[in-house]
Design brief:
The protein is an alpha/beta fold. The chain is built from twelve helices and eight strands. Helices cover 37% and strands 17% of the residues. It starts with 6 loop residues before the first strand and ends in an 8-residue tail after the last helix.
Amino acid sequence: MTELPARTFRARDGVRLAYRELGSGRPLVLIHGYFSTATVNWVRYGHAAHLAERGFRVLMPDLRGHGDSAKPRDAASYPPDVLADDGFALVEALGLTDYDLAGYSLGGRTVARMLVRGAAPRRAVIAGMGLEGLVHAVGRGAFFRRVLTGLGTFARRTPEWRAEAFLRTVGGDPAALRRVLDAFVDTPREALARIAVPTLVVAGADDRDNGSAEDLAAVLPNARAVRVPGGHMSAVARPELGAAIAEFLTASPGRRA
């Protein structure tokens, strides 16, 4: 894995955020999942390289509280929907007007929040996310709160133990990550039904962590769902995920991949 240098931009509230860039061509913003980083989600498993080879300028932010971005621990730095605000700040900082937008898990939820708030990419990909994870996002943080407040207490091979192991692997800041949970907001079905952007909803064949991808695609007016091998944690490591994203984003106009 080639380490990409971190670049920085400023959020709307002045917080310093990091992003990485690979390739040239059509801009594609890729947003990673909770606990993860741009490098882990998109670079390590080859997705960024594959997309760059397909003609994209791949732009990968580290979410607030994650990776090389700032990790403030005060509540004021995590108002509702701040992750979507940060996504808009990146688009504005880079002067993007014609671009594509994709994200995995929390990144997929951030993509959805940007879309309902007026983001207008050519196409969008919501990965590792189902309808339940958007409509009832606030309640989805209970598992992670339990992990972050009980570090070192979980039995081996339990879901909590695996989540803590991943947290340690990426060097996450538990205090900052607890604050990130405070920024979650619910997205009503009615708001999702107004998203006109062509959208791919993609999830692992065994992924039920955030509800049904098919149910989400059915609510979105211009979407389709596809499944790739794996569960929520393993699908992101499979080349089929990057291939599905690339196929959808490079499909001819008028044809949905």
